[in-house]
UniProtKB/TrEMBL annotation:
Lineage, highest ranks first: Bacteria, Pseudomonadati, Pseudomonadota, Alphaproteobacteria, Rhodobacterales
PANTHER family named among the record's database cross-references: SLL0088 PROTEIN (PTHR38600:SF2), TRANSCRIPTIONAL REGULATORY PROTEIN (PTHR38600)
Organism whose genome encodes this protein: Paragemmobacter ruber
Residue intervals of the HTH arsR-type domain: 1-94
Gene3D superfamilies, sorted: Winged helix-like DNA-binding domain superfamily/Winged helix DNA-binding domain (1.10.10.10)
Transmembrane region(s): none
CDD domains given in the database record: HTH_ARSR
Matches recorded under InterPro entries: ArsR-like_HTH, HTH_ArsR_DNA-bd_dom, WH-like_DNA-bd_sf, WH_DNA-bd_sf
The protein, known as: Metalloregulator ArsR/SmtB family transcription factor
Length: 115
């Protein structure tokens, strides 16, 4: 696994902002227009568009324009790289903790200490 994966970095960057996470949560229920996404944020449209640009660059959303209306949709499969990375980290740390536990148990056994 590469030490620096730009796609994974873009994904975590996109997920790092609570406004963007809230937008994704709303989009999980179905596609929404930019205006619908902007309404509860209290942010100005240019700021909302910047957030949507970050989400789209990370592959988390797709947008389509019909006339003057832009609709955004969540792309749940885009979360797979983050899930895979976190699963690899979980496995790595579980293995490390298992080895630590075995080492501590061995030390206790050698020292004549029982649990």
């Amino acid at each position: 696994m590469a030490k620096h994966d730009p796609d994974l970095s873009a994904l975590f960057h996109a997920l790092s902002d609570p406004t963007r996470r809230a937008m994704l949560a709303r989009l999980a229920a179905g596609p929404l227009t930019v205006t619908e996404l902007a309404a509860p944020t209290g942010l100005r449209l240019p700021t909302v568009l910047k957030h949507l640009g970050v989400l789209e660059a990370a592959g988390l959303i797709a947008s389509a324009k019909d006339g003057r209306i832009r609709t955004c949709a969540f792309v749940p499969g885009a979360l797979a790289p983050a899930r895979d990375w976190m699963e690899a980290q979980r496995s790595l740390w579980e293995a490390r903790l298992d080895r630590l536990e075995a080492y501590v148990m061995q030390l206790m056994k050698e020292g004549g200490h029982d649990q």
